[in-house]
Write a structure and sequence with these properties.
The structure holds 2 protein chains of 2 kinds. Chain A is mainly alpha-helical. Chain A has one domain. In chain A, helix 2 runs parallel beside helix 5, helix 3 packs antiparallel against helix 7 and helix 5 runs antiparallel to helix 11. The two termini of chain A are 20 Å apart. The relative contact order of chain A is 0.13. Chain B is α/β, with parallel strands linked by helices. In chain B, the strands form 3 sheets. In chain B, strands 6-7-8-3-9-10 form a 6-stranded mixed β-sheet, with helices on both faces. In chain B, strands 2-1-4-5 form a 4-stranded antiparallel β-sheet, covered by helices on one side. Chain B folds into 2 domains: 214 residues, Rossmann fold; 64 residues, 2-Layer Sandwich (Alpha-Beta Plaits). Chain B is built from 9 helices and 14 strands. Chain B is elongated. In chain B, helix 2 packs across helix 3, helix 2 runs parallel beside helix 4 and helix 7 packs antiparallel against helix 8. Classes of the chains: A mainly alpha, B alpha/beta. The interface between A and B is medium-sized, with 24 and 28 residues.
Chain lengths: 280, 304
């Protein structure tokens, strides 16, 4: 089972390379980091030149805000990639019929699902490392600033990617590519909206709105994970005073991380079952 | 029949309100080349997919290589060439074979040697390092065949294996099937090409609306044979006697024609005529072509 899953995972990597996905990611990721680095160079210089006018530490908070804006963009790209990468790999192969010869080999169907999931997750992890890691590296080198809590924030972003990847794969066992993508993005949209409703409910002190948001987060915990990541990667003053759009008024509970892990396991098990029982 | 590699009883598949396969009941023996014939939409591919474990039957039961359909271990002894050869076309031919061989659990050295052997056998050794999307339909079919034979299977499912092949390719498939039979490998051949089936198969099943309407032995002396006899005198008792040995007995201008099951019957007819003291000037048997039988069966079913 594990051996077969690893063979399928390696095929997914090979496919990404052969279909030039890796090159596209590298080139566009490089462009993204170049844009960020150039912008940060000028912004950091301006912030430092005006640092003496503001309170102590204000320059660091300003840089933190810029880095968070870049990480927010990275998060958005990770969401897109997490939904789009697995679309072709399972539902695409089902639609093309390429899955038939795989499914008649002496490997459990579950190994095909797990292998594809591992392959996609590995690719997305590389993407996260390239973009988020790149942003942090550029921030360190160009802006001479490293945001706090990156040891917690980056794994949470990767976990968020895992949640969306698993949902997209689950949808791919039953739906064709376009419907699969629409379903996964629709669920992400629900979680995104739920996150904002929860924040608004907390600020306004409305319990009903807050519970609606929490319910949406339980259904799809992706947005909660980003909010938690953003919370940890900001200066304490910024997050406590909610000085930026990335500072959640209602900080997701750490138990949401456990729930997200359980969510991935349950949805993946459901995906294995769905794929195992479907006609090919 | 030799030890069965496929045994299915009452396999049925219903999609929503549509029944794709009504009742698939058949047995295929070890080393047998079994043809599965039927018009488009007869349920041939669905039947094959049920036996391969790709489609879950709505009802019925089947055993393939002694295990329930879809059994993971049993699949180690099965090869499958899908219709239209739908593979990962961004792989090269060699990469495709390596990937599938690894899924069979083959060790690297043995796999590399087997791939080289098969590439030569399907005459694709010069093109093995080109990507599949650059291949012609016939080349994909050849690589697909190599893929189906990687594990030296005990049972091979071939879905339209000669589709898209040039005459040389058709001959290659024919030879491969003969080699498989000689090695004791059973072949389940799904094909529209009646002439191909007639040449390669030991036995065929005609499928109509997801039901096996007739099975026919092609190998050896089996099968329906048209017999033409020039004999004298033609009397009523002689015709009655011939009617006991065959069917559809008729006579015209000193020639009696009838149909018998298998060429063995011709010897019996000759003995009968000689014992009756009739003068036999000529007796000849001609096996009924699969094509005429197919058309007759399908028209008969259509009228029913």
């Amino acid at each position: 089972m594990i051996r077969a899953a690893l063979i399928v995972a390696a095929l997914t990597f090979h496919e990404a390379r052969r279909r030039r996905l890796l090159w596209v990611v590298l080139i566009l990721g490089g462009a993204f980091l170049l844009c960020f680095g150039t912008g940060l160079h000028f912004i950091a210089a301006e912030i430092r030149s005006q640092a003496h006018r503001g309170p102590a530490g204000a320059d660091k908070m300003a840089l933190n805000f810029i880095v968070m804006a870049a990480l927010y963009a990275v998060n958005f790209l990770i969401v897109m990639v997490s939904v789009l990468v697995p679309i072709e790999t399972l539902s695409g192969e089902i639609a093309s019929g390429a899955i038939e010869t795989l499914a008649t080999k002496p490997v459990p169907r579950g190994a095909i699902v797990i292998g594809k999931w591992l392959g996609c997750w590995g690719l997305i992890a590389m993407y996260v490392a390239l973009l988020a890691g790149g942003v942090l590296l550029v921030s360190r080198v160009v802006g001479r600033f490293t945001p706090p809590g990156i040891g917690i924030g980056l794994p949470l972003m990767l976990l968020e990617a895992g949640v969306l990847l698993t949902i997209s794969m689950a949808a791919g066992t039953r739906l064709a590519g376009l419907s699969n993508g629409a379903t996964a993005f629709g669920l992400y949209g629900l979680a995104f909206l739920g996150g904002w409703i929860e924040q608004a409910g907390t600020i306004l002190g409305n319990a009903a709105a807050r519970y609606i948001g929490i319910l949406a987060s339980l259904l799809v915990p992706s947005e909660s994970l980003w909010q938690l990541a953003a919370y940890h990667m900001q200066h304490p003053l910024m997050r406590d005073l909610q000085m930026t759009p990335f500072s959640p008024a209602s900080v997701p509970s750490p138990s949401m991380v456990g729930w997200a892990c359980a969510h991935i396991v349950v949805v993946l098990a459901f995906t294995v079952r769905l794929f195992g029982r479907r006609d090919l | 029949m030799s030890e069965p590699v496929i045994e299915s009883r009452g396999l049925r598949k219903v999609y929503g309100g549509t029944t794709a396969v009504h009742d698939l009941t058949l047995t295929v023996g070890r080393g047998e080349v079994f043809g599965f014939l039927g018009p488009n939409g007869a349920g041939k591919t669905t039947s094959m997919k049920m036996l391969l474990g790709l489609v879950r039957p709505t009802a019925g039961a089947a055993r393939v290589l002694g295990a329930g359909v879809g059994d993971v271990k049993a699949r180690a002894g099965i090869g499958f060439l899908p219709e239209h050869c739908r593979f990962h076309d961004w792989l090269t031919g060699r990469e495709l074979l390596t990937f599938h061989g690894r899924l069979y659990g083959m060790r690297a050295e043995a796999l590399a040697a087997r791939i080289d052997e098969l590439l030569v056998r399907v005459e694709m050794d010069d093109d093995a390092d080109r990507r599949l999307h650059e291949y012609s339909k016939g080349m994909r079919q050849r690589i697909g065949l190599a893929q189906a034979l990687l594990n030296e299977p005990k049972l091979v499912f071939l879905d339209e294996p000669t589709s898209g092949l040039d005459p040389m390719g058709v001959l290659l498939v024919r030879d491969l099937i003969r080699e498989l039979r000689a090695k004791g490998t059973a072949v389940f051949l799904n094909s529209h090409l009646l002439s191909e089936v007639e040449v390669t198969c030991d036995r065929v099943a005609f499928v109509r609306r997801g039901r096996v309407v007739r099975e026919l032995v092609l190998a050896g002396d089996g099968g329906r044979v048209d017999v033409e006899i020039k004999v004298a005198p033609i009397s009523a008792p002689l015709l009655e006697g011939l009617a006991r040995l065959g069917t559809n007995v008729r006579h015209e201008e000193g020639i009696v024609r009838l149909q018998v099951d298998g060429e063995d019957r011709i010897a019996e007819i000759t003995r009968f005529l000689v014992e009756r003291g009739a003068a036999v000037y000529r007796i000849a048997g001609r096996r009924e072509s699969l094509e005429s039988m197919f058309l007759e069966l399908m028209e008969g079913e259509g009228a029913a």
